[in-house]
Every structure is written in C-alpha cells, then in structure tokens.
Amino acid sequence: MAAGPSSTTTPIAWSIQTLALGSVSFPIARLSFQLYGRTILPARVVTSVDCWIDTGAPLTVIPFHVHNQRLLWHSVPGLTTTWMGQRCDLGRVDVWLPTQQPPNVRGPLSLLAKFARSDPPGPPVPVLLGLEFFLAHQAEFVLLLPPQHSVLRLP
C-alpha cells in the first residue's frame, strides 16, 4: 500500500445501542472504523480489522483473537504489561487507515500497542485505538454528534 497525500481524513462512525438495566434504559456509544494491517497468512497480504477509539487508553490494545496467527507485529523484547487481567506483550505494528482522499488509504503508520496473550472472558472486543497513536502521528480527532460521522485527521 502506498503512502497517502499530506493531509487525510478518516470517517469515524457512531455505533449506538440501548442498554436496559431493570427499569432504566440508556444509550451505549462506540466510535468505530476499520483499519488495515499486514498479515502472516499465506493467501492474504493485508487484513481489515474492526477498531474502536478509546480515549481512556494510553496505548492501543490488540486483543489475542485479532493478532493470533493473523497479524504481523514485532515485540519490544523484555516488556510486558496487562489489559483486563490478561498478560500482554508490548510491540509495534504498521497499520493503514481508510481515507476520504485518493488513494483512499494512509500508511504505513506505526503504532505501539499491547498484544494480549489471551482474550478476557465475555464477547470479543475489537482493537482499541489509544492516545499514543494520536500523539505519535499528530492526529486530530473531531467529535461530531450523530447522525454525522466524526473524523480522524492526519497532517
């Protein structure tokens, strides 16, 4: 995949569900998009990955089910951490973002992430894009209310 133009935008969609707890119902919102990464799969060079923006996460988290036997990443030797009670390796991965400008993809963009060694109990979680990505790439996040799409802008 080729590098994109000097300034690009990636649309970020609202995913809103209603949660009912007893007599109280309220909206649960996620900001989601797709990103792309190199694979280790013999038949595919690139794979699409579901992603949520997580402004409470200092580092990106890549759950086990996303990277295991699928995503090409490189460990930072000797460094481990945790996420939701799961041991994680610290590592780097190159990703590409879909953009609204030709050639409609921006990357490779390196990000530092926690790579979980196992998944926590419960439903699978997508990649959680942490704040390190925004700082490392001087990315800007524009939060617009639904039904509009929010925007991730890279210089």
CATH architecture: Beta Barrel
Computed over alpha carbons, the radius of gyration is 16 Å
Query: Which geometry do the CA atoms define?
Result: globular
Q: Tell me the CATH topology.
A: Cathepsin D, subunit A, domain 1
- What structural class do helix, strand and pairing data support? mainly beta
Helix count? 2
> What would the average pLDDT be, to the nearest integer?
94
Q: Tell me the distance between the termini.
A: 18 Å
CATH class: Mainly Beta
User: Could you give the count of β-strands?
Assistant: 10
Query: How much of the sequence is in beta strands?
Result: over 45%
Which regions are unreliable across 5 or more consecutive residues at pLDDT < 50? Answer: none
- Total domain count: 1
Q: Please summarize the sheet with the most strands.
A: 10 strands, mixed
